[in-house]
Structures are given as C-alpha cells and as structure tokens.
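Supplementary Note 3. Input sequence used for the single-chain structure prediction.
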Amino acid sequence: MSIDEVSKRKGHQNLVTVVSNIDLGELLEVIDSHKQDDIIEILKQQPIEIREKVEEVSVDMWGGFPKVVKEVFPNAKIVIDRFHVMQPKNQVEQVRENW
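The predicted structure, written as discrete structure tokens, is reproduced below.
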C-alpha cells in the first residue's frame, strides 16, 4: 500500500491524501485532507480484518504518516519510498556540481 499527498492545484499547498495499492496499481482512496486525524478517520472505516492484512505501507518522509500507519494498519511495516529518500541526496549533489 502507498499513502502520499498531492496538491489539488500545481504550486499550491491545498493537499489531498492518495491511498493506493502498489501491487495492483489501483487507486483506493482520495481523502480531501492532509490532516492526520482526518486520514485516520477515513481509513478506519474499513473493517479491522482488512486493515490487519496490510503488511507494508510506503510513505514519504512527512512526520504524520507513521502515526497514521500505526493507528490504522496495526501489522504494517512503514517503508520510506526511495524517491523521497534519494531526492534530497540528488539535490545536494546537484548543488555541489554547480558550486
């Protein structure tokens, strides 16, 4: 599973939260908020039997996602997606090259 935020309008901070099944490439939910409590409330509408089956949740490095995953998917491991890990590293390397 993947949880990420997306801006409703490019260049603006008006964010929605997108939940998808990475394995199947399916969009599962678009939550019209990026607040922890709102995300938790919406995702907890799924039965616990389904939520307990989630093994991994891929997220970016936003500090709110670990709480969401722990509260909603009790058996899931949190995985930081490689794009968000590599992005700051690549930016530093690019600055060094241009220095």
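The first helix runs from residue 36 to 43. The chain has a mean pLDDT of 84.
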